[in-house]
Amino acid sequence: MGSSSSSRNKIPNAQELMDQTGFSSAHLLRLYDRFECLDRDNRGYLSPDDFEAVGGLAMNPIGGRIIDAFFSSGQDTVDFSSFVRILAHFRPTDRNRNKEGTQQELPNSRTRKLKFAFQLYDLDRDGKISREELLQVLRAMLGLQVTEEQLQSIAERAIQEADLDKDDAISFDEFKKSLEKVDIDTKMSIGFLK
Amino acid sequence: PSCHCLPQLPCVYVIASPLVLCWVVPLAVRSLVPVLFPCGFCHLFLDCIIAKESPASLRQEIRGSASCLCSDHEFDMADIFYFCRSGVESIVDDEVTKRFSAQELESWNLLTRSNYNFHHINMRLTLLWGLGLLTRYGILLPLRVTLAVTGISLFLFFTTLVGFLPNAALRSYLSEKVHMMGYRMCVSSLTAIITYHNRENKPKNGAICVANHTTPIDVIILASDRCYSLVGQMHRGLLGMIQSGMVKSSPHIWFDRSEVKDRHLVAKRLSDHVADKTKQPILIFPEGTCINNTSVMMFKKGSFEIGCTIYPVAIKYDPRFGDAFWNSSKCGLVWYLLSMMSSWAIVCSVWYLPPMDREEGEDAVQFANRVKATIAAQGGLVDLIWDGGLKRSKVNDAFKEELQKLYSKVLVGDHEDESERMEI
């Protein structure tokens, strides 16, 4: 005794979201349920403390930065379409391209995934990862488990390897180059179920 | 003529309610269950949005293939992907947050409150739903409220009466009867259709009974089968009155708000009660908060430190007839009870499990986890290590430190002197 769902009515701009992110309507519906579940006060948008309530995120060393990635451009609320657009970065890359070819690049392309990861390093969004920013990320991931000297030497090594134009910072292109052998698709994708 | 009818109407209700609620509705539900819902009992909910592969350990993922065990792993810009991905995965779906909201059903049971994804697309379904609404709110709800009010009033009246008796033995005998009557009336007023399994394992005197917690109704369901001593905070208002009434005739353990904070006092009162073998078993819900009946969360070790026999009980509700989970952040107790009374019925199974004792060399936490695993296995629930207190508070930093430690071991922990520093 049941009837199938009619998803479009609940979600604003559903078709547009599907085209721009590549999610199917079933995915959008499940994500909408999740959005509502996280939005405990039923305000229609999420704020940073809604994210902080997720256990798995609170114990993640870079949890704070991931949350910041959702709240770009100075806003302090996230509505459903922004939520979905960010999560779209984590869709596995499509093996089969559309016959017509895509007009715009989907968020889950290799470059866009890399850009997302780059933003986690580049806090001040100036397009470069400075030595100080790298140190901050390392401190977050390692906490008090290593000494300051060890941190410095790790950061030094990383910059020397990746910094090709020797400006003591890593630009996005240098970042991309240093990761060209890495299988980004596997590492930066979540297995969304049908 | 109309004022002649008026006094008769409540009488009709009072007489009709036990008849309808104790006989007709359970009969209907029990016979309808195999007809309407031929599929199985428990596993009806849509669970996951992502396929969680076997959790690759941090070490495996960052280091790559297992063959390079000898060389150190240098920090790689790509290391951040692991943390990034697992962080976003938990935003999309995590084990804990979804336990604090009601579970979803695969097919609709004609209750609007369970209608998450379903849309009326044909007339017949809407008609059925309307009919159901009329039945539930027009017939079932008033009958149930009447029975509940009658039951509670009778209960308060008789417990006060029994409390005046001088003879202790007679008093405890009668109070047991009165309590059972009260609970059975409450069970009928909610039309709770309970199947008890393994009654030979029913808790005995001088022990502690432990169960998973979904709703305050758990108490009524268990207590209608045998008498327990309850433990809890003293409330105000109607509930406080009921609590005072209960304690006049039988030994419940109600705390003042100020005493609750003092764990030693609590433990002392519990062990004193348990040491007296003539007293009823104590009923405790170690999770400390209501969980949505798909999982069992961390058991607080307090009751397992006392050192007496523990009788575990697993309670599993059938969500098709009415969702019993009380989401205290979404609605208050009175609203919850009314919505329970306007569901179809509350169908549940109670399994009495064999008694367990703390083994040699086992500490309270391990014992608690062992009991929890038994309950989860019997009820078909997921066994989680997380604390139910996460419903209201945030994860503490100890977990974050664990991850940081793991990662640092991968990076630098292979050197002799370093690994010494890592061990605490």
From TrEMBL, chain A:
Keyword check for Ribosomal protein: no
> Which GO-annotated molecular functions does the record name?
calcium ion binding
Q: Where is the EF-hand domain?
A: 109-144, 150-185
Q: Which Gene3D superfamilies match?
A: EF-hand (1.10.238.10)
Which keywords label this protein?
Answer: Calcium, Cell membrane, Cytoplasm, Lipoprotein, Membrane, Metal-binding, Myristate, Nucleus, Phosphoprotein, Protein transport, Repeat, Transport
What's in the GO CC field?
cytoplasm; nucleus; plasma membrane
Keyword Membrane part of the UniProt annotation: yes
| Superkingdom of this protein's organism | Eukaryota
Family classification: Belongs to the calcineurin regulatory subunit family. CHP subfamily.
Q: Supply the name of the protein.
A: Calcineurin-like EF-hand protein 2
**Gene that encodes the chain:** chp2
From TrEMBL, chain B:
A single cellular component GO annotation: membrane
Q: Which SUPFAM superfamilies match?
A: Glycerol-3-phosphate (1)-acyltransferase
Question: What residues form the membrane-spanning segments?
Answer: 12-29, 121-139, 145-170, 333-353
A Pfam family this protein belongs to? Acyltransferase
Q: In which pathway does it act?
A: Phospholipid metabolism; Lipid metabolism
GO: which molecular function terms? glycerol-3-phosphate O-acyltransferase activity
Keyword match Membrane: yes
Q: Which domain of life is it from?
A: Eukaryota
Q: Which GO terms describe its biological process?
A: phospholipid biosynthetic process; triglyceride biosynthetic process
Alphabetized UniProt keyword annotations: Acyltransferase, Lipid biosynthesis, Lipid metabolism, Membrane, Phospholipid biosynthesis, Phospholipid metabolism, Transferase, Transmembrane, Transmembrane helix
Q: Where is the Phospholipid/glycerol acyltransferase domain?
A: 207-318
Localisation: Membrane
Q: Which family does it belong to?
A: Belongs to the 1-acyl-sn-glycerol-3-phosphate acyltransferase family.
Name by which UniProt lists this protein? Glycerol-3-phosphate acyltransferase 4
Q: Which organism is it from?
A: Oreochromis niloticus
